[in-house]
Amino acid sequence: MIEIAIVGGSGYTGGELIRLLQKHPDIEIKSITSRQYNQTPVDKVHPHIRGTNLVFEDIAPSNLDSDIVFTATPHGASMKIVPEILETGSKVIDLSGDYRFNDVDTYEKWYDIKHTSPIEAVYGLPEIHRKEIKKANLVANPGCFPTGAILANLPLSKEELVDNIIVDSKTGVSGGGVNPVPVFHYPNCADNVIPYNITSHRHGPEIQQELGAFSNVKVSFTPHLVPVIRGILTTSHSFLKDLDYSNEKIIDETKIKIANIYKKQYKNEPFVKILDDGEIPSLNSVRGSNFAHVGGFDIDNNGRLIVISAIDNLVKGASGQAIHNMNLMCGFPEETAIDGYGMRP
After folding, report:
1. How far apart are CA 332 and CA 141, in angstroms?
2. 144 catalytic per annotation
3. Contact 134, 328 (CB under 8 A)
4. Residues 18, 79, 133, 144: which is the catalytic one?
């Protein structure tokens, strides 16, 4: 039995960690920390989680004494506690952006924070870094936008099929976290689509880092807020190299070829599902699940290839992926506790 701790368990990702880990047969939640809710029963903050007898505690990082520690803390906060936790011998899965970048200068530029404790971490996308995750002491859980974008475009970069990719993502309001801000106020976001940080979102260089590791592909990224609670739908646009898009037969053959490349890439991945026959992924098919659906694979009469992915930003884009990483680090079957299908409708 593995003992785990959750630091910062009062937010949405903390709640999802608790919800999903309740079904894990090989772990025990030893502690869930929160200064704000110290000694408060978990169900008073997460009312859907009943009958667990779990209570938030204010525990210093050096006193957590657990095999695995999830740090569900804001950017800039994780770097202050992760080194201390690692010194106790615990392994850490960090859900902030503090350890996702290979180059600390890139982090400091895009997050506008001085990194006070750079430590080498493994980027926690199992579909790319499974072997490294299994041996890691510190795993940097990917961002939600990068998860959907990277999975939608990984085969294109690995096969060097395109030079440029434009990523257009639509996210639900839960991506903004549990604390309310004006942009997420219902009258502002309902009946609306809000582009933001249109060329400067901090997840852009994270996508570039992972896709650019395989080829010289250049990635452009723009996010949009849409009035749904959870989920990210990503539409990726690119132009295949040396494609004669004036020939309809070649276009049809290329669509099939691209779909088969994706199927080959992900054939052994338990949480990536490639949709057939031009089927388009939808948010309500992955809601509440750790699955990523990838589909589309269509080419227009200008030679533009469109690939679409759908994930739940709080599960595959955060807590479910963190548990997947934990399973790999501990030698558990990868799908343990996170193999449930999406909630539809």
Report:
1. 18
2. yes
3. yes
4. 144
CATH number reported for the structural domain that contains residue 18 in this entry: 3.40.50.720
Domain check: are 84 and 197 in the same one?
no
Do both 173 and 32 map to the same domain? no
Contact 70, 32 (CB under 8 A): no
Tally of structural domains, the chain: 2
**One domain, residues 185 and 245:** yes
Residues 151 and 266 in one domain: yes
Summarize pLDDT for 90-119 with one digit per residue, the tens: 999 999 999 999 999 999 999 999 999 999
Identify whether the C-beta of residue 297 lies closer than 8 Å to the C-beta of residue 259.
Answer: yes
Domain membership of residue 332 (yes or no) is no
CB 151 within 8 A of CB 165: no
Structure tokens at 108: 């400091």
Position 5: which residue type?
A
Give the range of the structural domain holding residue 188, as residue numbers without chain letter: 145-313
> pLDDT tens for residues 45-97?
999 999 999 999 999 999 999 999 999 999 999 999 999 999 999 999 999 99
| Beta carbons within 8 Å of 206's beta carbon, 6+ residues apart | 97, 100, 101, 142, 143, 146
